[in-house]
Amino acid sequence: MIKNVWLFLPGNAEGDASMKDTLGGKGANLHEMCRIGLPVPPGFTISTRSCNEFLKIGELRKEVIDEINSALSKIEEFTGRKLGGKGESMPLLFSIRSGAKFSMPGMMDTVLNVGINDEVMEVLAKKTGNRRFALDCYKRFIEMYADVVCKFERSNFEKILNEIKGSRKYDTELDENDHEIIVERYKDLIKKNNIEIPQDPYEQILEAIKAVFRSWNNERAIIYRRIHNIPDDLGTACNIQMMVYGNLNNDSGTGVCFTRNPSNGEREIYGEFLTCAQGEDIVAGIRLPEPIGKMREIWPETYAELENYCNILEKHYKDMQDVEFTVENRKLYILQTRNGKRTVKAAVKIAHDMVEEGLIDIGTAILRIDPTLLNQLFIPVVRESKKKNNKPIAHGIPASFGAANGLAVFNSKEALELASKGVKVILIRPETSPEDIGGMAKSAGIVTAVGGVTSHAAVVARGLGKPCIVGCSDIVFENQDHVKIVTEEGPIELPKLTEITIDANDGSIYLGRLELDEAKPDASFYKLLLWASNIKKLKVLANADTPEDALRAIKFGAEGIGLCRTEHMFFEGNRIDILRLAIIEEDREEKKKFLEKLLPLQIEDFIRIFEIMNGLPVAIRLLDPPLHEFLPKTMEEIENFAKRVEIPVEKIRNSVIKYQEANPMLGLRGVRLGILYPEIYETQIKGIFRAAKIVANNGIKVNVEIMIPLVVSVAEVYYLKNMVEKIYNKELSHGRTERIGYKFGIMIETPRACLIARELGKLIDFASFGTNDLTQTVIGLSRDDAGKFLGTYLEKHIFKKDPFISIDKEGVGRLIEIAVQNLRAANKNIKIGVCGEHGGDPESIEFFQNCGLDYVSVSPYRIPTATIASAQTVLKE
């Protein structure tokens, strides 16, 4: 018989940490903590399989219900408490929480204090001697059950609560009489709205379990899974656990802590807590919590116990832990542990430090890093000179590192709409809730008026790699379009769409757009990169078009340049005007004269790049884009250009019309330019060889590779190969050229080139798959227009992933495999790589490595991603 329900009791549990597929991450860790002797309130976990069955048939199976009943009886027996508070026993209340295999903080539902009703509330008051506490539990239960199970907006209750609170700031200031009134008004409200909250504790439990299972498919959970690439078919487990009461009195409380700092990775207990509160108060940011260090002052023995358990958990799991706890009358209970969400900066430092501490090995450290997030290490910081000259308008608590500027918006829907149009926005909210996930994911930065470093906003922002400031109490929300900043000098009005800058490194908010500088990773990053470099198989080259790009690439460990796009060199200074004149000129000889003017400028660029790379390979792609991309587009641009170069507007306009293309991606570009206008390629090739000669004569090694784009026939390659060879012989026939050779290669960007790869391989030294264009031509999908329907295709699971981000293995990938096989059959010494965007995608890198490619070439900032991903592929093998 298949087991559906797994019991956990202190010192004894039916599951363990290895069972995350079945028990979810939260459940598996609850069982594991019981096994190693931590003080965990007893409970049971219903499996993810049961969730998927429930979602399919709409009901809990009888076998599942029978196992739930058995587990409830065992917990009653173990605790001496009774569901419904029968007899002289203490009532048994439960928290009912979700818990998927992968952590999805706040995205699914929770119901606390389940099992309470009118009668149980009175028994709870009698047993604890604290009627205010019992009423508070009942109030919380009504709010959560009505919201989660009955789908009755929680904001309806907030109106009543705020009315009773009046000028009082926190719920803790409400007395027993206030709570009595609130509970009665809550009950009147749900009755008036025909909301049925059962008095039967057992029915409450079953309905809450169903609601938790249903929450797997709520909108925010679906969005979160899409953002973090979590499969939709995993389902969530459900954890039913005996309540312990942080809201019992002032010797009780609740908190969240990390065993290391999740923002910067420092080794310290980092977190916060609240006295007289339940866990939701911290996560939702209802009250501003105290830093965890304050707990040491008021409950020193309890804090020492917590510190000890944190050390035990970190050593046991060999990773930084995110620990939730409750203190009831100074007795500590551990409610949850999980591998803590952290910024990538913290992830790198923690992985490095744990190797140095002997806790994990190098391979484990590398596998701990999410390569897709490494670019977050370069999230900008506010330029120091600008910080000195500008006074912040507000301060909050830094919750996730980095800085950002953008337009202030005050609701997630508007943030999502504006960001989708390319507008940079800073989302400012009183506090965030799981419903805000879409807007948070698209915003450049996040600010909340309340909440602490373990609030929803802080945890989610760290997972998203967004700069985040929380607890900025100077912000007063007046309406959806306007907030006010309270300062000592007086209020500052902040209408929506006002440009601001946030510095989440110190919690400062500035009016206006302050200049940002690139962040600098610390030594642990470069050490980790070195470890990965010694493990990986693929060479990692750079897409670098300028000396600045080349320097940055070397800094990150590039082993050469796999793609130097010469077209980017034409946009500096007045070069574009010279190139435009060359394009417009009809006479071939005059055209060459203009191109000759560009020759020394290109030579300068190539010299600097060769010097920087110092003997590493530099693959220079000859001109690729269609000529119309270099010409002015609007009438205003045409007139300004005509005025600068003193030629008739009509002549320019005629050229613009002449070179316009209906489908530029498939038009006059790539190798076709070199055949129709050979003088363009000849000038470029001369520049490359002359620069190489100058650098070699200065005693610096040169490793030249010339790459022809968009080839589709053997004849094209033969024609260009002869052109390159003739110019090489002419330019390098004398002088100190013994250290200069060159390699001749092509870009494979069309299905035809893949299919004739055996014939092409006989003529070339290397080949690079341009997977951006190859994806377009194989799938028949334009990158520029795919956005109109690609989102729908992903939502409907027609495409599992965006084919422009992760390689389409069945189509594009299959052609690559065929081409690689034929290239190697034609030339066993051939070098084969990739220089499209897919070269920086970890899943694609694994595919390329398994295909037998030699290298990937990526933008400088993605070199660390490719390096780590290649090493991880080796380690997984």
Please, could you describe this protein's structure?
The protein has 877 residues and is α/β, with parallel strands linked by helices. The chain is 45% helix and 17% strand. Strands 13-23-22-15-16-17-18-14 form an eight-stranded mixed beta sheet. α13 crosses α19. The longest helix has 26 residues, at 588-613.
Mean pLDDT over the residues: 89
Total number of helical segments? Answer: 34
Gap between N and C termini? 35 Å
- Describe the global form: elongated
Multimeric organization: single chain
* Order of strands, widest sheet: 13-23-22-15-16-17-18-14
Percent helix, as a range, is: 40-55%
Strand content: 15-25%
- Please tell me how large the radius of gyration is: 32 Å
SS elements, strand count: 32
Unreliable spans:
none
Class per helix and strand makeup:
alpha/beta
Brief synopsis:
The chain is an alpha/beta fold.
List the helices and strands and how they pair.
Layout: E1 5-9, E2 12-13, H1 20-35, E3 43-46, H2 48-57, H3 62-79, E4 94-100, E5 110-114, H4 118-128, H5 131-148, H6 155-165, H7 176-192, H8 201-214, H9 219-228, E6 236-242, E7 253-258, E8 270-275, H10 279-283, E9 290-291, H11 292-298, H12 300-317, E10 321-328, E11 331-339, H13 344-356, H14 362-367, E12 381-382, H15 384-389, E13 394-395, E14 397-400, E15 403-409, H16 412-420, E16 425-429, H17 437-442, E17 445-448, H18 456-464, E18 468-470, E19 475-479, E20 482-485, E21 492-495, E22 499-503, E23 508-511, E24 516-517, H19 523-533, E25 539-543, H20 547-555, E26 561-565, H21 575-584, H22 588-613, E27 617-621, H23 635-645, H24 649-659, H25 671-676, H26 678-697, E28 703-708, H27 714-731, E29 742-748, H28 751-755, H29 757-761, E30 766-769, H30 771-779, H31 790-795, H32 809-826, E31 831-834, H33 842-851, E32 855-858, H34 863-876
Parallel strand pairs: 15-16, 16-17, 17-18, 25-26, 25-32, 26-27, 27-28, 28-29, 29-30, 30-31, 31-32
Antiparallel strand pairs: 1-2, 1-3, 3-6, 4-5, 4-6, 7-8, 7-10, 8-9, 10-11, 12-24, 13-23, 14-18, 15-22, 19-20, 20-21, 22-23
Helix pairs in contact: 4-5, 5-7, 6-7, 11-12, 13-19, 20-22, 21-22, 22-26, 26-27, 33-34
